[in-house]
Design goal:
Layout lengths: L2 H10 L6 H18 L10 H13 L9 E5 L7 H7 L4 E5 L3 H14 L4 E3 L3 H7 L4 E7 L4 H8 L3 E11 L3 H7 L1 H6 L2 E11 L2 E10 L11 H6 L5
Parallel strand pairs: 1-2, 1-4, 2-3, 4-5
Antiparallel strand pairs: 5-7, 6-7
The protein binds S-adenosylmethionine.
EC number: 2.1.1.-
Function: Specifically methylates the N7 position of a guanine in 16S rRNA.
Family: Belongs to the methyltransferase superfamily. RNA methyltransferase RsmG family.
């Protein structure tokens, strides 16, 4: 997929991407390629693949999402948070990423593209202690399996807010294993949407928070990993 194909594919899904936004995505793509030579940012490094497997994959799941504040947990090189901040400027985007080197890259992207985003160099479980129930939307891609991810992400979400988990083909199993975590953290799975990306079906899960999360969560990471909720 190239820039023009990306724009048409987004349009078919009801997402209009302006030429200015395409320029910003292209600038981000070049920074990603440049920095990827000096540090490990992404295994997906070819231009065509970046347009499809990173940009298209990250933009489409938010086509119908509403809200003002969005937090991307474990953003890495900026996915999905940076494409979302570019294409949906109505969201005030916060990126949470514990690796300092990756945050330096994210700061560079922010400066060069002139993005109004916040970058927090922290683990989600620490960030959540100071930012409970602060976000309308929380999202995450490729950070942890769903049971663990829910404990990291749901405390950040306000009641009635949406948690959007970008998952692969194993999503159904992950949901089955996360029933206790969903109950404990007061969320329901309200929707599942499939996005076709480079001959694969990516499953995106949409959760709604029904009640506040107990202050017990998130626990420290050692406990979350050793004893995931309900596992
Ligand atoms: C495989 S990368 C995925 C990055 C990006 N979300 C993507 O889809 O390309 C996983 C990222 O999650 C971050 N991470 C791992 N544990 C985390 C935690 N407890 N809180 C926040 N981020 C975490 C890692 O530092 C890493 O950058």
């Amino acid at each position: 997929m190239n820039r023009v194909e990306f724009q048409s594919a987004c349009q078919r899904q009801g997402v209009d991407v302006t030429n200015k936004q395409l320029d910003q995505l292209e600038q981000y793509l070049h920074l990603l390629q440049e920095w990827n030579q000096k540090m490990n940012l992404t295994a997906i490094d070819e231009e065509d693949q970046i347009w499809e497997k990173h940009f298209y994959d990250c933009v489409i799941p938010f086509a119908n999402e509403m809200g003002e504040t969005l937090c991307d947990v474990g953003s890495g090189a900026g996915f999905p948070g940076i494409p979302v901040a570019i294409v949906y400027p109505q969201f005030h985007v916060t990126l949470v990423e514990p690796l300092l080197k990756r945050c330096r890259f994210l700061e560079t992207v922010k400066q060069e593209l002139g993005l109004d985003i916040q970058i927090c160099n922290e683990r989600a479980e620490d960030f959540a202690k100071k930012n409970r129930a602060q976000f309308d939307i929380v999202t995450s891609r490729a950070v942890a399996r769903l049971t663990i991810l829910l404990e990291l992400c749901i405390p950040l979400l306000r009641v009635t807010g949406s948690f959007v988990a970008l998952k692969g083909k194993n999503a159904e199993n992950e949901v089955n294993n996360a029933k206790v975590a969903m109950e404990t953290l007061n969320v329901i799975l309200k929707d599942e949407k499939i996005v076709h990306v480079a001959d694969a079906d990516h499953v995106n899960l949409y959760f709604e928070k029904m009640k506040p999360t107990s202050k017990k969560y998130p626990r420290v990471y050692g406990q979350i990993k050793k004893k995931p909720l309900g596992e």
